[in-house]
Hints:
- The chain is of the alpha+beta class.
- The chain has three domains: 5-90, Rossmann fold, CATH 3.40.50; 119-181, Dna Ligase, domain 1; 187-375, D-amino Acid Aminotransferase, Chain A, domain 1 (2-Layer Sandwich), CATH 3.30.470.
- It is 33% helix and 26% strand.
- It is built from twelve helices and 18 strands.
- The chain has helices spanning 13-25, 55-62, 77-85, 94-101, 103-112, 126-136, 160-172, 228-245, 278-281, 286-294, 326-332, 361-375, and strands at 5-9, 28-33, 47-49, 67-70, 89-90, 120-123, 140-144, 154-157, 177-181, 187-195, 201-203, 207-212, 215-221, 249-257, 262-268, 308-315, 337-340, 350-358.
- Strands 10, 11, 12, 13, 14, 15, 16, 17 and 18 form a nine-stranded antiparallel β-sheet that branches.
- A hairpin with a 5-residue loop joins strand 10 (187-195) and strand 11.
Amino acid sequence: MSAPRIGVIGGGQLARMMQPAAVNLGLHLRVLAQSPTDSAAQVIPDTVIGAHDDLEALKRFAAECDIITFDHEHVPTEYLAELQAMGVAVRPGPHALQYAQDKLKMRHVLTQAGVPCPQWAQLHTPEDLDAFAEKVGWPLVLKTARGGYDGKGVWVIDNRDHALEVMERIVESGTEILAEECVPFIRELAAQVARSPHGQCVAYPVVQSTQTHGICHEVISPCPDLDDVRAAQAQEIALSIAQLLDVTGMLAVELFDTGDRIVVNELAMRPHNSGHWSMDGAVTSQFENHLRAIADYPLGSPAPKAPVTIMVNLLGGDLGDLHSAFRHVMARDPQIKVHLYGKDVKPGRKIGHVNLLGDNLSDLRERAWHAANYLTGVIDE
């Protein structure tokens, strides 16, 4: 059996981090990137420059691929249907990806299936807003149905005037308005599963995710102080969604834990920031299992290698040259694993992450944050 040629649409860090796993599996990756300086384009020799929303560019790119997968969810689903008509396997397919692209569609299908979600409504008019606010109270959350990520397109709002202003902005941006109750969560969780075309699934440990200004900053695997019953409930939710939506590849389900219940926040049908810990902390990383899944190979074990793994994202700060900090970080803690994305440093931008595994959470946390803070210039000793 010859190895399939896999095309990744999008040249960001997720495509970049698929490359080592592809090399080990003997798979040929090609990437459709916006620029030759994109994160993935720097390390994947077979890079094609083109836009994800240019149908002709997509067709030319897909003509040299057996399987198409993604670094992001922004490719129009009608374009993906055309690639399928060419005989190319698109994984996940547009029938599944639409629910990661459109939060209103996602809320409709999950609610109909009985999956626990926040109270929500689609808003069209000020009267719709008033009715929903009376039902759930203030504050409430407004979201763009399409296009938001890393906290963009999400507003927590505590009064009617601000809500009406945001509603107008959302409509002007060309998308629809999703309103949700402001869930009083005690922490955010993520449950990741991998699923192959013939239905094999594996579930990773449920992790705790902490955000800074809407951007994931820290992930702890497994989630500390989460009892086995609730962890199994979160995994079951993710597995049921993967089957319900016929997802192929990695699925990340972001969840709110209120202490009394677990509800679904958002979905991502690709490798996800909440799974970067698995690069060093799991028997099979999320990137390898994503490739195994879309190629319909048997899936690898998601079992952890240590009792605890912590990941801290490197968010751009004052230090422009991260390599200048390497000697201190590596000498101070040889167990730290540093992963850089080849991106220019900009304030708040994800430019890499560090992983550390062991058995003492407080010790691992102090060491991982020291490394991350030194690499980004927050501290200098």
